[in-house]
Amino acid sequence: MRQNLVEQIDAILPQTQCTKCGFSGCLPYAQAISQNNADINQCPPGGQKGIQALSKLLGLPSKPLNPKFGIEKPRTVAVIIEKDCIGCTKCLPPCPVDAIIGASKQMHTVISSVCTGCELCVVPCPVDCIIMQPIESGNNASVWNRVNADNAKRRYHNKSQRMERLKADKIKRQKKQKSALAKLKSAKQ
């Protein structure tokens, strides 16, 4: 029953994976809510609409967004000022949905249709070439909807799995290197 509740809560959350709620992503926040370890008003991207949906699901009174976690604002996307980008790649790892593409020492760009607006790429940029830009209100992308959230969740899950595979591969390579080095040392003796 508890896992089903976590899934229901997670389905309400916007899946921006912004960490503004104080958790490492939407699922950990959903788990904390289900365990009464977090309040329902900690998600700025979900805003009042999200709080009301959580309130209804959990049978709790609605409350305003806790300003400690941020304020509700119009949807934004990251934009890289390309002429200033030095290709350092520091913006790539924090992007939870791989919305930034580029290679080392090459200009990077943001796939705006994929960007969740989490802002996690802004701080690591050493040359301040990433800005958050509001999406025009007439644009379909200006409203974060369930389709956007489901796509973001899928992309986040795919990136998380890829990062785990890379980590496991690195550990495997390191073990193989240590073994080869040990064989070389023992052969020299």
How would you portray this structure in words?
The protein is 40% helix and 7% strand. The chain has 189 residues and is mostly helical. The chain has 2 domains: 68 residues, Electron transport complex subunit B, putative Fe-S cluster (3-methyladenine DNA Glycosylase II, Chain A, domain 3, Orthogonal Bundle); 104 residues, Alpha-Beta Plaits, CATH 3.30.70. It has a two-stranded antiparallel sheet with strand order 1-4. A two-stranded antiparallel sheet has the order 2-3. A hairpin with a 7-residue loop joins strand 2 and strand 3. Helix 1 packs across helix 2.
Summarize the SSE layout with pairings.
Elements: H1 2-12, H2 26-34, H3 47-58, E1 76-80, E2 100-101, E3 109-110, E4 130-134, H4 146-188
Antiparallel strand pairs: 1-4, 2-3
Helix pairs in contact: 1-2
Give a brief description.
The protein is mostly helical and 189 residues long.
Any key phrases for this structure?
189 residues, mainly alpha, 3-methyladenine DNA Glycosylase II, Chain A, domain 3, two-stranded antiparallel sheet
* Average residue pLDDT: 92
Radius of gyration: 20 Å
CATH architecture of the largest domain: 2-Layer Sandwich
Number of helices: 4
Counted beta strands: 4
Q: Tell me the number of structural domains.
A: 2
Please identify the top-level CATH class of the largest domain.
Alpha Beta
* Fraction of residues in β-strands: 5-15%
Uncertain parts: none
Terminal CA distance reads 61 Å
SSE arrangement, N to C: HHHEEEEH
Overall geometric form: flat
